[in-house]
């Protein structure tokens, strides 16, 4: 059940409702908005008397949420924005362009990439320090050393960091460096990890499981939200189908579907969807045209030498050219870069 407070009503009225819900033995989640506050109630809400709630000062309406993903549901609020730094948010008018090496390799590679990405209009640096590899014999990432490289690049360029978290035991150490904690496709249903990320307030970018339905995807987001972290960004990165011409099949329809079902920002990773660099620009442009709030992409100074996923990293020139096209598409759909 959702309790919507009147516009501009004081926070105290919302806190009174929160107290009332607690007294009933249910769990209230207060979602503070810029215009109005909303309280989501978790638990068996049949014991709540709607008339009593409706009569409480400041309450505008009480609504049932039929979707199983209560806190992610669009019923709760309009589009959310997730604040990354003072001047970068995801879900607002300006697109979030996250790009960089698939795995952090050396300070030189990360620095050169971040500078090229920034010069072309990207605003968030990407790099994996812990890599989830299909083979245990493949390069697993530099770990802490990789996080330190990203932090050094952030110091010099000012670009915030998105990096993957694989293990619930690493949440604290990764959060010390990361501005956005990325949960990869293989961990979308790692519920213990999701709960741990719910206990911190750092933005979480949750990638869609490669075989997950949209509802399963939103239920995973619900784990983070219901554990207390409202800062969730969704990422469509291609799903596994019978097609082998591309690494995965980008589910472009997930963008309008998610936009209808949830208030959470939606970004797209065309690199892991395509698996081949020459297909990435077309998918990136389609994603923005379809309403995505941003992109996550692999870029490398010398893609064939990339230690992970060399086939899908864009060259600096390809990235720069793509950004020029993205600027035009962004304008056509009322966004900026
Ligand atoms: C990645 O972004 O580096 C990655 C491993 O992606 P995914 O989880 O989508 O496979
Ligand atoms: Mn990769």
Explained architecture:
This protein has an 8-stranded parallel β-sheet with strand order 13-12-11-10-9-8-7-14. A 4-stranded antiparallel β-sheet has the order 2-3-1-4. A two-stranded antiparallel ribbon has the order 5-6. The protein is built from 11 helices and 14 strands. It folds into 2 domains: 2-63, Phospho-2-dehydro-3-deoxyheptonate aldolase, domain 1 (Alpha-Beta Plaits, 2-Layer Sandwich); 82-332, Alpha-Beta Barrel (TIM Barrel). It is α/β, with parallel strands linked by helices. The mean pLDDT is 95. The structure holds phosphoenolpyruvate and manganese (II) ion (MN).
TL;DR?
The chain has 337 residues and is an alpha/beta fold. Helices cover 34% and strands 20% of the residues. The chain has eleven helices and 14 strands.
Write the layout of secondary structure elements.
Elements: E1 2-5, H1 11-23, E2 27-32, E3 37-42, H2 50-55, E4 59-63, E5 82-85, E6 88-90, E7 96-103, H3 107-120, E8 124-128, H4 144-157, E9 161-164, H5 171-177, E10 180-183, H6 191-198, E11 204-207, H7 214-226, E12 232-236, H8 254-261, E13 266-268, H9 270-274, H10 280-289, E14 294-298, H11 316-332
Parallel strand pairs: 7-8, 7-14, 8-9, 9-10, 10-11, 11-12, 12-13
Antiparallel strand pairs: 1-3, 1-4, 2-3, 5-6
Helix pairs in contact: 3-4, 3-11, 6-7, 10-11
This protein binds phosphoenolpyruvate and manganese (II) ion.
CATH superfamily of the largest domain: Aldolase class I
Large-scale geometry: elongated
Spatial gap, N to C terminus? 37 Å
Average pLDDT for all residues: 95
CATH class of the largest domain: Alpha Beta
Hetero ligands: phosphoenolpyruvate, manganese (II) ion
Q: What is the CATH-assigned architecture of the largest domain?
A: Alpha-Beta Barrel
Helix content: 25-40%
**Can you count the helices?**
11
Order of helices and strands: EHEEHEEEEHEHEHEHEHEHEHHEH
What amount of the residues lies in strands? 15-25%
Described by strand count, sense and barrel closure, the largest sheet is: 8 strands, parallel
Strand numbers in spatial order across the main sheet: 13-12-11-10-9-8-7-14
Number of domains: 2
Number of strands: 14
State the low-pLDDT regions, or none. none
Radius of gyration computed on alpha carbons: 21 Å
Structural class: alpha/beta
Q: Can you tell me the CATH topology of the largest domain?
A: TIM Barrel
